[in-house]
Amino acid sequence: MKKITRNICFALLLGSMGVSFQSCTNKLDILPEGAPSKASYWKTKEDAVKGANGLYNLYDDEDFYGRGFAWFLNASDDMVTGRNNAQAENIRTFNRNYIGGGYTESQWQMRYAIIKQANEILRYVPSIAMDEKLKNRILGEANFNAGYMYFQLAANYADERAGVPIVTVENMDNEKATPRAANVEENYLHIEKLLKSAADQLPFFDELDVADYGRAHKVAAWAVLSKMYLYKKDYKNAILYADMVINQGKRGLEKSFTDVFKAANNWGPEYIWSVTSTPAGTDGWGSILPGVMLTNGAWGLYNGWGYYMPTKELYDSYETGDARREATILKPGDKFMFFGSERIFAPAGSATCDMQFNKYMEPFSHPSPIGTHVSPNGNHMATDLNVPLIRFAEILLIKAESQIMLNGAGAGDKELNMIRKRANLIEKTGMTLTDLKRERRNELAGEFSDRHRDLVRWGDAEATYAKPLHTYAMKNGSGMPIEFAGRKFDPKIHHVWAVPQQEVDNSAGLIKQNQGW
Predict the structure, then answer these.
(1) How many Cβ atoms sit within 10 Å of the Cβ of residue 204?
(2) Residue 219 and residue 272 in contact, taking contact as beta carbons nearer than 8 Å
(3) pTM score of the predicted model
(4) Measuring CA to CA, which residue among 425, 448, 246 is closest to residue 438?
(5) Taking a C-beta distance cutoff of 8 angstroms, is the pair 435, 416 a contact?
(6) Where does the protein principally reside (predicted)?
(7) Contacts for 454-460: CB closer than 8 Å, 24+ residues apart
């Protein structure tokens, strides 16, 4: 399987059309530079495949699903920054001084770059003479990636007052920037169209050749549709597409929670959509999140960055006996394997929190893992573990939440008990939305499922963020427990993030900042 992962990652690297992120002055930053001219490109099957490969190129960028996007997750009550970092604290405290800083400024333009690549495929590939089955898959990959990018953009930047720009084949050549959609509902309609088209065009995962694992597939499109409908509060359709994943998608739960986060199970039953990753080559390829969350300095053996540390509030939220707690969190005194030897966890001296996420540690557990399980480049800490973006357990949680919202307490018991049983917890009846919120938190902590966005959409963010957060046992110089002060969250402003300043500036006034920011 390591060979398979390496093949697809290097295919994506070598086959992609170059994309530059230099800011431009009169357009939304979505134009690829250095690509072949249109006159010489988009003629053959090979061109179409290379174009599809380019959809995934940015999955290797450290700020895509490694550090940059995770700064938004760091606003939740599940984690603190872990190191003294002023810009990071501005983000998690909703201080507008973060606007224009490098940590999150590229999130918008990177996603629009993928949308641009998808639009190129949708414009040119239909006219290429090639195998129709392969053509449909490539068009489906374009529709899926565009739909997924729009979903993440809409979730983070759009509301009922203003959506995000909808850039299509028809308007992508406009000299002026594309204005924002009227509202998030317009974005949802466009996302729905893209993902339904993708689902119609894409094969099931088990119909892909092994060398193509990591490409978009039908069930991934259904899964994102289900999550989009949940965010839209269209619970009937959220259930409809969750059921399609559950009943037709040939997916399921891993037998144990820890199995989800083993590289051997990258393509196991729980997989729906992940960041395909590998330690191969000089730099590795894929998500560096495992190394970003690794204790700063990694006890002298590697270059962990020590960001996104779990809070005592997260630790205490687990029920007694929940197998997910120790599988998710390392606390002082816990034993774990690292570089082939058993260690007792202790935080770095520079850490501001005394715990670490444990979910992504399996690649580091092996003897001499560098080059075989962990990237040789300690500044690009990709591993052989594919970092999940959406997995089967989340689909069960989406269905359970939607059923509770429609039919009240107990309506999600079946799905919630499937998750509880795997966590070695007793089954319960009559579970409420409060139970659902805890199960979602405990199952998905530290993942890109986005606890912050959950708290916002539930209306819980203001009250939750007003409360202080704590370390497990760390004390300050006066011997007092370390406390992270509560934060002021204004639900009329902070329910969306600020539009990156360069997009506002470069659009000649067409792209407006979110109100209040």
Answers:
(1) 13
(2) yes
(3) 0.93
(4) 425
(5) yes
(6) membrane
(7) 455/76, 455/77, 456/491, 456/495, 457/231, 459/491
- Contacts of residue 186, Cβ cutoff 8 Å, sequence gap at least 6: 163, 166
Burial grade of 402 (CB within 10 A; 0-12, 13-18, 19 or more)? buried
CA dihedral (10, 12, 16, 22) positive or negative:
negative
Query: In b/e form, how buried is each residue of 96-123, taking b as 16+ CB within 10 angstroms?
Result: eebbebebbbbbbbbbbbbbbbbbbbbb
Q: Tens digits of per-residue pLDDT, 243-253?
A: 999 999 999 99
Domain count, the chain: 1
Q: Which domain holds residue 367?
A: 288-309+316-385
First to last CA, the chain: 46
Tokens of 478: 């006066």
Q: Which secondary structure element, helix H or strand E, spans residue 444, and what is its range?
A: helix 433-444
Q: Which residues fall within 8 angstroms of residue 60, CB to CB, at 6 or more apart?
A: 9, 12, 13, 285, 286, 382
In-domain check, residue 358: yes
Assigned domain for 325 exists: yes
Containing H/E element for 417? helix 413-422
Q: Would you state the structure tokens that stand for residue 241, as one six-digit string?
A: 């597409």
Check the CA dihedral 439-397-391-59 and report its sign.
Answer: negative
Give residue-wise pLDDT tens across range 269-319. 999 999 999 999 999 999 999 999 999 999 999 999 999 999 999 999 999
Torsion sign, CA atoms 214, 397, 66, 455: positive
- Phi, psi (5° rounding) for residue 134? -65, -40
Residue 2 lies in a domain: no
The alpha-carbon radius of gyration of the chain (Å, integer) is 22
Place of tokens 């449909």: 136
Structure tokens at 388: 């999940």
23: helix, strand or coil:
coil
Q: What is the pLDDT of residues 96-132, one digit of tens each?
A: 999 999 999 999 999 999 999 999 999 999 999 999 9
Token digits for 430?
A: 């009559």
Task: Tally Cβ neighbours within 10 Å of residue 481.
Answer: 12
451: in domain:
no
